[in-house]
Amino acid sequence: MVDLNLHGANVFALTDFKAPSADVEGAILAGRDVQLSNYSVNDKNVDAYGGYSLIAGRNLNFSSGSIKNGNTYVGGTANVTQSVDVYGKKIQTGAANAPANLTALATQLKSTSNSLSTLATTGSATVQWGGLNITGSKSKVEVIDIDAKTLSSVTYFNFSDLSSGSTLIFNITGTSGAFYGGYQGFEKYNVLFNFYQAKDLGIHTGLTANVLAPLATVNGGSGVINGNVVVDNWLSSVQINANHYFKPTTVTGFMTPVPEPETYAMLLAGLGVVGFMARRRQRAAAR
């Protein structure tokens, strides 16, 4: 099962999320620091981890804007000016109370990106007259390989032999990628662009798709993304909207990432508690 496991979040920056303006309609996760100004968070009330609009692993600096609907967690210091409206919600600080293990989530998403990159292709993408012809196999899941230079060179897309509502996984090779031109038509599918090698990623268009680029920094740009976004660093005013989130999908050949040792420890601890309670009930019944 391919699942980004973002627990409702709109965007996850594995390191820092910094933006001088714009908004994220859903919830923000950042492994380290969040720095915002003239910014709106979670206007659409799509919380992460059961009730959070924003989770920062280290520090939060927020000079103007709003955090709507959900609570905020900050692992380190929260510097939020009076001009930021939090609508009466809590800003919780302290590493001991973390609602999520973002380090483990980052490791899992890197593994997911690598695993996706090894999938056998089912479709193709060819350039013609400045556009990209995407041809599938009429399957529920299509896997298509494209190099980043090709993707950044095209200005429109044609689709053929794709099943309605199918999942399209694009594995993008290359250390530098970008979105330009018109991306009409992708809203009909469950789309994931997997930039498994990219160190930098440019956004210069409107895009209805999900982006998995766990090694990449998004710096500057313009436009809007409708969907989930996973990057290493976000340094941009591109708007991120809370719709067309990636739907978990069974994909033939996908190797589910192995849980981190900490996850195993938590599982074993839970099993230990279950075993203890079972033995306790047995002794009580024998009396």
From TrEMBL:
Regions crossing the membrane: none
Domain Ice-binding protein C-terminal: 257-281
Domain Choice-of-anchor A: start-end pairs: 10-241
One Pfam family this sequence matches: pAdhesive_15
NCBIfam families found in the cross-reference section: choice_anch_A, PEP_CTERM, PEP_CTERM_FxDxF
Protein name: Choice-of-anchor A family protein
Organism: Duganella fentianensis
Lineage, top ranks: Bacteria, Pseudomonadati, Pseudomonadota, Betaproteobacteria, Burkholderiales
